[in-house]
Amino acid sequence: MRLLMKKSILVTLSMLLIITGCAKNDQGKIRAAGVIDGDIIEIKSMINGKINNINFVEGQDVNKGDTLVKINCEKILNNLEELRIQEQEIEINKQRLKEKLKLSKARIDYLEIQTARFQRLNKDAAVSGEKFESMKLKLLEAKTTKYDITKQLSVLKLTQKKIQNKNRYFTLLLEDHVLISPISGIVLESYNIVGETIFPRDNLADILDINSLFVEVFLEEGEMSKLVINQTVNIFIDGLENQEIQGKIIKFGKKAEFSPKYIVSEQERKSLLYPVKIQLSKKNIDVLKVGMPVTVEF
Questions:
Q1: How do the residues of the chain divide into helix, strand and coil, expressed in percent and rounded to 5?
Q2: Cα(278)–Cα(247) distance, rounded to whole angstroms?
Q3: How far is residue 159's CA from residue 89's CA, in Å, rounded to a whole number?
Q4: Residue 252, SS3?
Q5: What's the CA dihedral at 185, 191, 194, 195 to 10 degrees?
Q6: What is the pLDDT of residues 181-235, one digit of tens each?
Q7: CB–CB of 231/82 below 8 Å?
Q8: From CA 291, how far away is CA 148, in angstroms rounded?
Q9: Distance between the two ends of the chain, CA-based, in angstroms?
Q10: Number of other CB atoms surrounding residue 170 within 10 Å
């Protein structure tokens, strides 16, 4: 009878040790509740105008570089067309002046030869001094004409540069009338409709960067001291069975998020919570939504 009682006591103690060991293992895991969050990009207008096209709807996936919104730009296109016509006129005038310059150089060459000949004849008294002076004046007029043509070409070149600068300005302004998605993500919200007039800094849409999803949880100082950067964690989606996603710790908060106004006691200090940021794995990331509650297991 005593032997049976001893065996019973040993079995009971063994079971207690096993249960105690299991409880410690469970206590070794840290669980914390959190919410899915991410970087949201605001698509804002840089100019004012009427919306011609909106190429997205709320909840739609968009890729980096996709055209999201087109704002009316008829005035800019008209300005660019006018500049194009002006530049064509300048090119025509440049060609005309270049031909005149070529003829002017040829005339100067001819008059220089004639002036030199008249100078020799004048020395020999073969021609009058009046004719020689007249030839010199013609040569001077030809050189003056050449100078004027050269100056006109310089003015045209300067005008052409001004037109090119204006052209570049309107081209850049035209780019502001087409809003491009800077990231790949999901359109969370749209704020305008086609035909509506918008103004600078107006927000047209919010896009969630799908590569920036994270979870932020709050832990006690003692719990946080057991964790390390880049440590892998498991994330369970509340309400969905068999939906487990991995993540890794990327940041520890330096300051407690909840701190008393005055100096706290040692007991109160244990209740201070520190933020821990977790980056989510891209695997199965399509099931995640911003604001979705999750449980993080360290």
A1: 45, 25, 30
A2: 6
A3: 11
A4: strand
A5: -150
A6: 999 888 989 999 999 999 999 999 999 888 888 888 888 878 888 888 888 888 8
A7: no
A8: 74
A9: 49
A10: 19
CA distance 243 to 42: 31
Residue the block writes with tokens 């409709």: 193
Residue 149, both tokens: 């043509």
Angle between helices 74-123 and 129-176 (to 10 degrees): 170
CA distance 83 to 168: 11
Biggest CA–CA distance in the chain, Å, is 165
Name the token pair of 29: 């895991």
Retrieve residue 198's tokens: 């918008």
Q: What values do phi and psi take at 10, rounded to 5?
A: -65, -40
Per-residue pLDDT of 254-295, as tens digits, reads 776 665 444 444 555 556 788 888 988 777 666 777 788 888
Which pLDDT tens digit goes with each residue over 85-144? 999 999 999 999 999 999 999 999 999 998 888 888 877 777 677 888 888 899 999 999
**CB under 8 Å to 283, separation ≥6 — which residues?**
245, 246
- Burial per residue of 14-36, b for 16 or more beta-carbon CB atoms within 10 angstroms, e otherwise: eeeeeeeeeeeeeeeebebebeb
Give the helix/strand (H/E) hosting 82: helix 74-123
